[in-house]
Specification:
The protein has 4 helices and 14 strands. It has about 270 residues and is of the alpha+beta class. The strands form 3 sheets. Strands 3, 6, 7, 8, 9, 10, 11, 12, 13 and 14 form a 10-stranded antiparallel beta sheet that branches.
């Protein structure tokens, strides 16, 4: 081919596609684009889900010790499990310590209560042999042999005659349980009450209250020292209102002054 010769254009054959074929191709292309879009969207969703899952997977959390929470990000399952175990152990130790403290407090409270009871009992034992003066007044006739004012012969007077105002209260000289409460003449004792005070310094001690106008206790009743048990009278073998107060040691009459003699009223009658 020479350079000075003009070039001749090569005729191009144009093929005209039938309209039906073109429509088919367009439909196929649209379908392909749609499928591709769905696939891309699915991949994007999957990627986002995987990313979220990968972030959330290590987030078991929630257990803390002393207010310190476990950070979830970047921990493996083994590390999370180890931290959970450590937290549970710490909480168990705290619970055990708290339980131990509560038990210690309970023990101390129990010891304090026991100590208070022992102090109270020691105080009671110290004053157990010190009886209250049983009624107002002084002793008009003491314990021992005497000429009986009615029978007119010498006989043992097994108690102390105290007071003289009819109707004045008679008090339990010491705490104890009522073992006798009788009305009537009763061999000269009149209306009378007896109280068992139990063991005092190794001896069973009881007290008797005779010639009462009336009594206000019943057999089996517990009375405390100072409780009113009746009122002064002149029932039985008696010439005037007074209290005949008697004491018994292991069932045998004894001088009441060994129990009531420490009172000021007793001292005022000496001599």
């Amino acid at each position: 081919m020479q350079a000075d010769k003009p070039r001749r254009a090569i005729p191009v054959q144009r093929t005209r596609l039938a309209s039906g074929v073109m429509q088919q191709l367009l439909r196929r292309g649209a379908a392909l684009i749609a499928v591709s879009g769905i696939a891309i969207a699915g991949l994007a969703a999957f990627g986002a889900s995987a990313s979220t899952t990968a972030y959330a997977a290590p987030a078991p959390l929630g257990i803390s010790s002393a207010g310190v929470e476990i950070a979830a990000t970047g921990l493996s399952d083994e590390e999370i499990a180890a931290q959970r175990t450590a937290n549970l152990a710490a909480q168990a130790a705290q619970l055990k310590a708290a339980t131990g403290d509560a038990a210690t407090v309970d023990r101390f409270q129990s010891l304090n209560e026991t100590s208070a009871k022992l102090d109270s009992e020691n105080t009671r034992l110290k004053t157990l042999a010190k009886f209250k003066w049983p009624t107002a007044g002084s002793v008009s006739s003491g314990y021992g042999m005497r000429m009986h004012p009615i029978l007119h012969y010498y006989r043992m007077h097994d108690g102390d005659d105290i007071g003289g105002a009819c109707g004045q209260p008679i008090w339990a000289a010491q705490s104890g349980r009522v073992v006798k409460a009788e009305s009537g003449y009763n061999g000269g004792s009149g209306n009378n009450v007896r109280i068992d005070h139990g063991d005092i310094n190794g001896d069973n001690v009881q007290t008797g209250y005779l010639h009462m106008s009336r009594y206000v206790v019943t057999v089996g009743q517990w009375v405390d020292k100072g409780d009113v048990v009746g009122y002064v009278g002149s029932t039985g073998l008696s010439t005037a209102c007074h209290l005949h107060f008697s004491a018994y040691k292991n069932g045998t009459g004894t001088n009441p002054m060994q129990y009531i003699g420490w009172n000021d009223e007793a001292k005022s009658t000496e001599g």
